[in-house]
Every structure is written in C-alpha cells, then in structure tokens.
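As a warm-up, study this chain.
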Amino acid sequence: MPKAKLVTRSATSSTVTADSIPKGSGLTNEELDSNFINLRDQGWRLRADDSTQHTITADTQINFSGGTITADANGDITVSNLGGGGASGMGNISGSGDTISSSGSTINFNDPVQISTAGSTGTDIGNIARFGQSDNLDFNHQGSLDGVFAVYGSGAQQSTAIKPFTINLDGNHQGCEIRLAPYNSSYLPTTYTTGMLISISSSGYKPAYWDGSDWRYVHDNSTV
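Now compare it with the structure written out below.
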C-alpha cells in the first residue's frame, strides 16, 4: 500500500532519532512533524533466503514468484504453490505427470523419469536419460550425446581433479574409464568384500583384488 499522506507545519524530514517518553514538556512543531513522519516511514524486517535483512515499509512491494495468491470473504490472503510447477518449496516432493508437489523430505516421481534437452518432444523425450523403477536405467538414452559422463571426486572440475569413473561416448574410445582407489601395500583397506578391486600405488598402481583371505595381484595372482 502507499505511504500515508501527511501535512506538516515545517519539517520535511524527521529529526527525532531516539525515544523520549515522557518528554515532560510540550512538543515543538518540529517534534510533532517528526513523530508523524516516523510513524509514516516505520517498517519491519524480512530475512531472505540468503540471510540478508530487508526493511519492509508501507510502499514496499513483495513478490511471490510463481506463487498463487487468493483472498477469502474476510480478506485473509493465502499464498500457495511457491516455486511454480506445483512445487511448494518444502517437505516431501512427489511427481504426478508434469506436476511436482512437496510436503516432507522424500522425493518420489512417476515411472519413468526422463531427462531431455530443451525443447524435446515426442520420441525425443528422455534423449539424455531415462530412469525406470524396474526395467531400465539409461544414460544417453537415444544416443544424442557424444561427450563424456563423469563422476568427479572432491576436486570437482578442476584441471587436477580426479574422476573415479568416466563413461566415454566419443568415437572409437567409447567405453568406461575407471580409476581404482590407490593404496600403499603397507596400508591396505581393512573393510572389504570378496572381489573388491584396488590399485597398489607402491607397485606401479598394479590392480589387486580381495579373494576372501588375501589381497592378490590381478596379473599373476600373487599376494600383495
């Protein structure tokens, strides 16, 4: 709403910056003007998602992007569907058709979930990935990508980053590139399952496997 309209005797801005209750004497014209101006310009604080504080005054406009605003017969206002696309922005997220809703901490989607490039329609739906609950888990579902699918370590996409797992989709080198976790032969894993593979950094990163009793080199089956 707009700020209240005022008439003052002389002041155009407030000079009252602290309480004086009671003052114990009559108010000057300047003090009267300042009190009215302070009441007109008072606000309250709103904390945004980024933790910044914003002062809301009478002429501040608050927008609910993607939300639905309704008012009942008593004038009470309800804001719903924040975030757009049927998502309330909190709690459980569930999918039904093209609609996402939220009420807790679990994410549920209809089968299948399909990821497509912008503008994909018809048979192009799911051309990047398609995830079914029982029958498929496809990446590059319709062969429209020719780069790589990579899982990065803690270094993320830095030039020196480690990629433990890469699927190369490019030309003659299509296939999996797997980096076995490196261990020095003096400090082998203490938690393992039969068939687990690692590389031995102190022996030129030769691959080794756990046979249920010992760590053995893959190339000659000798113990590490």
